[in-house]
Amino acid sequence: MKQKFNIITSTCVPLPLENVDTDQIIPARFLKATDKKGFGDNLFYDWRYDKDGTPKKDFVLNNPIYKGVILVAGKNFGSGSSREHAAWAIAGYGFRVVISSFFADIHKNNELNNFVLPVVVSEDFLAELFASIDADPDTEVTVDLPDQTVTNNGTGRSERFEINGYKKHCLINGIDDIDYLLQNKEKIEEWERKNRQ
């Protein structure tokens, strides 16, 4: 799932629900696996499927007019338990960006660790984005990580978003924490040599 992240322009999948918790993102019964493979198939499972596995036609992921690699979600996305599997499911489904006006901190970090960019916008911008997508499902959004801006291409309105500088570096370069440490192995060893008692 490691992918370099620069500028993404995409249509969006709208999920205008607040307080979506990690059990709704990936139900607990799917947490037995320790491999990330297949988690995207179970993203929002109880909302996507009936008990017999039939897709629910009224759920957004089953509606073919909504597509793209950007999920636009309501306020307080990823609350509840700290399960990293929720971020695995989002990444596994193919989302590269999640836009919301507020994320639970642990879930936000789990997304970053799985090469999904959580973008925090104002509630006003989020409402406008939902309205644009509702009016035209082909509305595109551009997320520019280097400049830290998100633009509703339907209206031309942009907002700046915040991101930890280290995580930004990792996303832009397609590296995780281990890769970063290995890239700096010589510096770490040099520091240890100089600071040995």
UniProtKB/TrEMBL annotation:
Enzyme Commission (EC) number: 4.2.1.33
Reaction(s) the record says it catalyses: (2R,3S)-3-isopropylmalate = (2S)-2-isopropylmalate
Q: What class of enzyme is it?
A: lyase
Aconitase A/isopropylmalate dehydratase small subunit swivel domain location is 4-123
Query: Which first-to-last residue range defines the signal peptide?
Result: none
Q: Where are the transmembrane segments?
A: none
Name the SUPFAM superfamilies for this protein. LeuD/IlvD-like
In this entry, which stretches build a coiled coil? Answer: none
Cited InterPro entries: 3-IsopropMal_deHydase_ssu, Aconitase/3IPM_dehydase_swvl, AconitaseA/IPMdHydase_ssu_swvl, IPMI_Swivel, LeuD
Q: Which domain of life is it from?
A: Bacteria
Pathway field of the UniProt record reads: Amino-acid biosynthesis; L-leucine biosynthesis; L-leucine from 3-methyl-2-oxobutanoate: step 2/4
Name the UniProt key words of this record, in alphabetical order: Amino-acid biosynthesis, Branched-chain amino acid biosynthesis, Leucine biosynthesis, Lyase
Q: Name one GO molecular function term.
A: 3-isopropylmalate dehydratase activity
Q: Which Pfam families match?
A: Aconitase_C
The reply to whether Membrane figures as a keyword in the UniProt entry is: no
What Gene3D superfamilies does UniProt report for this protein, alphabetically?
Aconitase, domain 4
Self-association and partners: Heterodimer of LeuC and LeuD.
Family according to the record: Belongs to the LeuD family. LeuD type 1 subfamily.
Q: What does this protein do?
A: Catalyzes the isomerization between 2-isopropylmalate and 3-isopropylmalate, via the formation of 2-isopropylmaleate.
Question: What NCBIfam families does its record include?
Answer: leuD, PRK01641.1
**Know the name of this protein?**
3-isopropylmalate dehydratase small subunit
Starting at the broadest rank, the lineage of the source organism is: Bacteria, Pseudomonadati, Bacteroidota, Bacteroidia, Bacteroidales
